[in-house]
Design a protein that fits this description.
Blueprint: E1 12-17, H1 24-38, E2 43-48, H2 51-57, E3 67-70, E4 73-77, E5 93-97, H3 104-111, E6 118-122, H4 131-134, E7 137-141, E8 144-149, H5 169-172, H6 176-184, E9 197-201, H7 209-217, E10 223-228, H8 233-240, E11 249-252, E12 255-260, H9 265-274, E13 277-281, H10 284-291, E14 296-299, H11 307-319, H12 325-338, H13 349-361, H14 363-378, H15 383-392
Parallel strand pairs: 1-2, 1-5, 2-4, 5-6, 6-8, 9-10, 9-13, 10-12, 13-14
Antiparallel strand pairs: 3-4, 7-8, 11-12
The structure holds 2'-deoxy-thymidine-beta-L-rhamnose.
2'-deoxy-thymidine-beta-L-rhamnose is lined by residues 20-25, 27, 57, 124, 202, 228, 262-265, 268, 281-286, 301.
Length: 395
């Protein structure tokens, strides 16, 4: 019997990524590029304007080389001066990530193709109600049409970015020996045997950090907090009263705090998978924790005029449904507190500490909730497959 394959016909995909700040833009694009290649057999070129940020997620990248191949994906440095491409050299499918605006010469070349490219603007993730209404909307540009493709949490959106097998990672990291081996790779050998909980922390600068650390220090059981170096590091140093160094563990009361370097994307996945609770941020780490079925608390990317708070509430409206009663509303309040939308003044220090402790005691319930939520998201199909299905129908 011939081997049946569901792979669609291989097209040439060009992904364009401008790194605005942090790691989310390239984090999404790099993951999508790999998935299109590995899972869907597509030929992928990723144009990116910041190889240094990319290198943090993918240490195998050579930042001094303008064109290279990594994990089956062609990576090209998107310099200010864009090379002249012939129409045939443009992509069959062209994705501009997060409205990054393609080079004018590239659009001109695309417009001269015999068979029109499928041109897609991949949008930022939002749980707001208007998203399904705008998903797959079209905008005419010259003689071309651009499609707005929205990831999302509900039917009628493009779903979320995750690959098959991701949900199995927590099981693989559940064994003590797997976690110890992982940590020893970063020079860390804390005593995990007596540790009740492991928590990862990835966040922006956050005024609520001090209260969280106070609460962990005072927790009745040992908590292991793992922190990749980054924007939260200064807050840790201030609280600890010393300059933290990656590869070291600091003990304060019940808190065992291990500092890690900024790790590669697959290693970060392992970290999320092994923790009982993950503090995540932005877009990509936020989605990873959800698609692994792990409890998480989100530090949302701040926007002008507090626009991010509407996005936070829209997400909480789905994630912490009213039907879940007081537990759901307490969980929503924890998100609000972490994002300062529930003002710190609303809770005094001991109330805030009691809330954190309550949340930690609730983790088994939150774990069940995370799995139920993951199941709901899985039903939407994954973003890369949804994109392939949409685009390959067109080209
Ligand atoms: O870095 P982020 O805050 O990214 C973004 C950007 O700021 C973007 O402009 C903004 O629009 C968006 O947020 C909302 O957070 P995010 O999205 O979680 O991306 C982080 C990436 O870094 C993700 O792919 C996981 C990865 N990562 C590692 O590879 N190693 C690490 O050690 C850590 C902590 C993260």
């Amino acid at each position: 019997m011939p081997l049946m394959t569901n792979l669609p016909i291989s097209r040439h995909w060009h992904l364009f990524c401008r790194v605005i700040d942090n790691f989310g833009d390239i984090g999404v694009c790099w993951r999508l590029a790999r998935q299109l290649q590995h899972q869907h057999g597509q030929q992928v070129t990723l144009w990116v304007d910041d190889l240094r940020s990319f290198h943090a997620l993918c240490p195998a990248l050579d930042v001094s080389v303008a064109e290279q191949q990594r994990q089956g994906v062609v990576i090209r440095y998107w310099a200010e001066e864009f090379p002249e491409l012939t129409p045939e050299q443009t992509g069959d499918v062209v994705i501009e990530a997060f409205a990054c605006e393609l080079p004018a010469s590239y659009i001109t070349a695309m417009a001269q193709r015999e068979q029109a490219s499928c041109w897609i603007n991949l949008e930022y993730l939002s749980a707001e109600d208007w998203v399904p209404g705008f998903h797959l909307s079209q905008s005419p540009v010259h003689n071309l049409s651009k499609t707005f493709f929205f990831p999302g949490f509900v039917a009628g959106t493009g779903g979320l970015l995750y690959e098959p097998g991701l949900a199995n990672l927590p099981r693989q990291m559940a064994h003590l020996s797997a976690r110890q081996t992982f940590l020893s790779g970063f020079g860390l050998s804390p005593s995990l045997a007596d540790c009740a909980l492991q928590i990862s922390l990835f966040a922006y600068e956050n005024p609520a950090l001090e209260g969280l650390l106070d609460a962990l220090q005072a927790f009745p059981r040992t908590v292991h907090l793992l922190v990749p170096a980054g924007r939260v590091s200064a807050g840790l140093d201030a609280w600890l009263g010393e300059n933290t160094v990656a590869g070291h563990t600091y003990c304060r009361g019940a808190l065992m705090l291990s500092v890690m370097p900024f790790i590669s994307q697959p290693q970060y996945d392992q970290l999320l998978a092994m923790c009982d609770l993950n503090f995540v941020r932005g877009e990509e780490s936020f989605v990873r924790a959800q698609m692994m079925g792990r409890p998480m608390l989100w530090h949302i990317y701040r926007q002008e005029e507090e626009a991010h708070l509407d996005k936070l509430e829209a997400f909480l409206g789905h994630y912490c449904r009213a039907g879940e009663g007081p537990a759901g509303s307490r969980l929503a309040d924890a998100f609000r507190f972490w994002n300062q939308s529930l003002p710190a003044a609303a809770l005094n220090d001991s109330q805030a500490q009691a809330r954190w402790h309550e949340l930690l005691h609730q983790l088994p319930v939150l774990q069940n909730h995370a799995l139920a939520w993951q199941k709901q998201l899985l039903a939407l199909g994954d973003l890369a497959s949804n994109l392939v299905q949409y685009a390959t129908d067109k080209v």
